[in-house]
Design goal:
326 residues, 40% helix, single chain, alpha/beta, UDP-N-acetylmuramoyl-L-alanine:D-glutamate ligase, nine-stranded mixed β-sheet
Length: 326
């Protein structure tokens, strides 16, 4: 038995969330639906432009979001990331601890990373991300015994490009050496297109569990629907294709499981994929079947999209129990 269900490593980011329209995106020269990597100067200019608007500030980051929800569901988890020696870095670490996530967060004299999320009336999300301190996560920040004592190591695809890739490869090598499964969320279609050969190679060599939405799957495989899922299954033992309101599909070997979505009033789709991963990984670590894990994942994702923000309260646990999902 491993001490931790999941060791998650990711970009520790503070999220700034606001409602926007297409005109604002055009004014800021942002391509709708994309994640845009920007530097500190660009970020400060955007923050200045949105000053005075109704902006919600919460701790975020894909892997951290997943772990925070897993903790609510009852999993013992640890998060590894890097923040700055600033107000937001202190808030971030405090909120992770308050979420009952073991903190393996290191600090550096840089600005804490942050993402500005623009939510348009059609619920589409457009991101600008300044990685800041998160970009400086290195091998020396990894506490190896935390990786060794984890059943699953969860990776966000955002870290599979640039200077962070070496650190992530180091973590995945430790995981392989000590029998931990490796879960990779492909994260972003544009990221995949920029690094297609490398991400396919890494997935083939390391992934045991692979998460992708329709756009990410198409970018990764050049295919859609069932054909995309079949191709994904060549790269990992368990592959999950998320289909939004159409539900999801899970494939292991020749077994394909169709998971229905839970109907809800969609307010903000930010963090839906992170929540889905939380439900699924909690299910797997708790010994649930793939089908039951997928149902829990679908339910948890439906709760996230019915609100603004990527984190949930403890009420999701009771709601899941009432539906016999836990």
């Amino acid at each position: 038995m491993k001490e931790y269900a999941v060791f998650g490593i990711g970009n520790a980011l503070v999220d700034f969330l606001l409602q926007a329209d297409d005109d604002m995106l055009k004014e800021l020269n942002l391509e709708k639906g994309r994640m845009h990597l920007i530097d500190e100067k660009q970020s400060k200019a955007i923050l200045e432009k949105i000053k005075g608007k109704n902006v919600k500030t919460v701790s975020g980051g894909s892997s951290a979001n997943t772990l925070a929800i897993m903790s609510i569901l009852g999993s013992k988890v640890v998060f590894c990331g890097k923040v700055g020696h600033d107000e937001y870095g202190s808030i971030y670490e405090t909120e992770m601890v308050e979420s009952n996530v073991k903190s393996s967060i290191s600090k550096i004299n840089r600005l804490t990373g942050h993402a500005i999320t623009f939510i348009t009336p059609d619920y589409e999300r457009t991101f600008t991300t300044c990685l800041g301190a998160a970009l400086y996560l290195n091998k020396g920040d990894i506490i190896e015994h935390e990786v060794m004592k984890s059943a699953i190591v969860h990776i966000e695809g955002y870290q599979l490009e640039g200077q962070l890739r070496e650190t992530i490869m180091f973590v995945m090598d430790i995981a392989k050496q000590h029998g931990a499964k490796i879960s990779i969320d492909l994260s972003d279609a544009a990221l995949i297109r920029r690094n297609l050969d490398d991400i396919r190679m890494i997935s083939k060599a390391y992934a045991d569990i692979l998460f992708a939405n329709e756009n990410e799957a198409e970018a990764f495989t050049g295919l859609k629907g069932d054909e995309a899922l079949d191709e994904l299954s060549k790269f990992a033992e368990i592959c999950i294709l998320k289909l939004g309101e159409k539900g999801s599909m899970i494939k292991q070997k020749n077994n394909v499981i169709v998971i229905e979505s839970f109907k809800t009033n969609v307010v903000d789709s930010t963090g839906a994929g992170d929540a889905y991963a939380a439900g699924f990984l909690h299910g797997i670590c708790s010994g649930m079947t793939l089908e039951k894990s997928g149902q829990l994942a679908s339910f948890v994702a439906s709760k996230v999209v019915s609100q603004v923000g990527s984190r949930l309260t403890s009420s999701v646990l009771e709601d899941a129990k009432s539906l016999n999902l836990l």
